[in-house]
Design a protein that fits this description.
mainly beta; 4 helices
Length: 591
């Protein structure tokens, strides 16, 4: 009864705050609101549920689909099982936001109702055609083939886009013919409009073991013809899926509309590789006359040499051009690493990364990814370190904030690069293996140094997750290895605990500094090294939180040389308003 009275009291206070408020008020992110959400939706007994990452209130989520900005609202569609926390019954979930932080869930956008998608509404994209959004998506038809379909808003004047029409006289608009494997033909990209008056889109396909990004052309966006040649192909890597193709500026961080193909630009081809379940990308040139993508010099048909979008636990990413703020924003699916039994018990599975702005680095070779600026609206208490020396073997705790829900930004400074261990070129092909061989007892030259997150509050830190750097010397240059260790992250049964590794694309000899930004949100940890040049997302399920214990945060240095923390800022993060059941804080004002 006391719990119920407390809930009613809080609800009354919040109802007063809502009066005459049209936008999402900052007051929603106070302690009273957080307590209400916890009481209503069980977060105090579900320590794995995130506080500011996108996830539905329950059930299964995977690929992000068709993100866009339309009539004052951001939309995100996503692969969704409406009846349970395991994969199956795939439809398109749909949520809207005014700020990409707080989200309201709407009814399903696409459901399995027609012969051309009766076995699933799989991934796809949104393209603006004559100012209105149009969906292209993969359906699994009544013959169990992958086919491509089209859907239109029932009412384009509705900013919520609550209803979509899948005309049977159009669908399917693309079917697998000839050498196309009907089981591996999917995920149409956002379309772009060529100077010749034709629309284009690409679809991932398997052609007798050869991966192809098939290109289709149309004058009206409903009748499509496959191009004679693919946009790009690979003979050695297996099926490519979830392709994303977009222009990037060589002179600005601004995003570009997908149809831009003039000026000082390059193009990026992003895809998921089924063989490794990782997202890769290539930077190059798009020849519109030949309709082919030409990777930059140095490209090899060997996936081990391709840049990886995120070296951790993400897949099936999708970007969109945000015309409101002239930027390109990226989402990625982060699946669970615990057991199916755990997911059934929780009642949910799968989240999205916090949205990232992406642009091309000044070197024109790699993408930069960085949490969008709106994340700052969630920052609460702050702690700071400046010019703090981390001696060899030192470990220093960061206190003063709740560190299971935090934004941490640290810059390490190296007094010298002398003493760096020797580099072997073979390291480049499998940096994760190299990371796996590094143990806390190793006293290397420069590193390992970095962060320990989600640590148990016991002597010896029985549970901890390490994100760290190590510097190597390669003839006339230095190489920075980034690692994450999950082997000690959890004592729970049935948790997948891999080691991830990557070499960071940065010249540390210039100023002898390397930065690390880390978003900690209960069971997910997103890491951005060197200003976002290398990213590594982790799933972490510490056992100590199940008994109500708090988690710790440390900086550490296990190398033989001292390391200086030039500056560290850490913020406790408020809880965002994400897809709460029966919460209509946006739609109530959009009749």
């Amino acid at each position: 009864m006391a719990r119920l009275l407390l809930l009613h009291a809080f609800l009354f206070q919040i109802s007063i705050l809502f009066i005459k408020i049209d936008a999402v008020p900052s007051s929603l992110l106070n302690s009273e609101y957080q307590q209400i959400q916890d009481l209503c939706f069980g977060n105090e007994i579900d320590p794995d549920r995130t506080a500011f990452h996108f996830q539905p209130s329950k059930n299964w989520l995977n690929d992000p689909n068709g993100p866009m900005y339309y009539k004052g609202l951001y939309h995100l569609f996503y692969q969704y099982n409406p009846v349970g926390p395991l994969w199956g019954n795939i439809t398109w979930g749909h949520s809207v936001s005014t700020d990409l932080v707080n989200w309201e869930a709407l009814d399903l956008a696409l459901d399995r109702t027609d012969p051309f998608d009766i076995n699933g509404c799989w991934s796809g994209s949104v393209t603006f055609v004559s100012g209105e959004p149009v969906i292209l998506y993969t359906g699994i038809d009544d013959k169990h083939r992958n086919v491509q379909n089209i859907a239109f808003p029932k009412n384009g004047s509705d900013p919520l886009l609550r209803q979509w029409v899948k005309p049977s006289d159009y669908n399917p608009i693309m079917v697998p013919r000839g050498d196309i494997d009907p089981d591996n033909f999917r995920d149409p990209s956002t379309g772009w409009f060529g100077q010749d008056g034709y629309w284009r889109t690409v679809v991932g396909a398997n052609m007798k073991g050869r991966a192809e990004i098939l290109l289709y052309k149309s004058q009206n966006f409903t009748n499509w013809t496959k191009n004679e040649f693919p946009l790009h192909e690979s003979l050695s890597s297996g099926m490519w899926e979830c392709p994303d193709f977009f222009p990037v500026s060589l002179s600005s961080r601004d995003g570009l509309d997908p149809s831009v193909n003039t000026g000082n630009i390059k193009h990026v081809l992003k895809f998921g590789l089924m063989k490794t379940l990782r997202d890769y990308y290539l930077v190059g040139t798009y020849d519109e006359k030949k309709d082919v993508f030409i990777p930059d010099e140095g490209y090899e048909d060997d996936y081990r040499t391709w840049p990886i979008l995120d070296y951790g636990h993400i897949y099936a990413s999708k970007s969109f051009f945000d015309g409101k703020k002239n930027r390109r924003i990226l989402w990625s699916w982060v699946n669970e690493s615990d057991s199916e039994a755990d997911d059934i018990k929780k009642g949910w599975s799968g989240i999205q990364t916090f949205p990232r702005a992406i642009w091309l680095d000044a070197d024109g070779k790699q993408l930069i990814q960085w949490p969008i600026e709106e994340i700052k609206s969630l920052r609460k208490g702050q702690v700071q370190l400046r010019d703090f020396e981390l001696q060899s073997g030192a470990r220093h705790e960061i206190t003063g904030i709740s560190t299971s829900q935090a934004d941490v930004d640290v810059e390490f400074e190296l007094p010298s690069l002398e003493g760096a261990e020797s580099f072997d070129d073979s390291f480049l092909l499998d940096p994760s293996k190299l990371c796996d061989e590094i143990t806390p007892s190793d006293k290397g030259g420069i590193g390992p140094f970095g962060l320990l997150v989600l640590t148990s509050d016991v002597e010896g830190l029985e549970e901890h997750t390490g994100i760290f750097f190590k510097v190597y010397k390669n003839s006339d240059k230095y190489m920075v290895l980034m690692c994450s260790h999950l082997r000690s992250s959890s004592r729970r049964e049935g948790v997948y605990k891999p080691t991830f590794g990557a070499f960071v694309g940065v010249d540390i000899s210039k100023d002898k500094r390397i930065s690390l930004r880390t978003l900690i949100d209960h069971s997910v940890v997103e890491n951005f090294a060197a200003g976002g040049r290398t990213c590594m997302t982790l799933r972490v399920y510490p056992k100590h939180v199940l008994t109500g214990q708090t988690s710790g945060l440390y900086v550490f240095n296990l190398g033989s040389l001292d390391v200086n923390i030039k500056e560290l800022n850490a913020w406790e993060m408020a809880r965002a308003r994400v897809n709460i059941r029966n919460d209509d804080f946006i739609s109530k004002d959009s009749v």
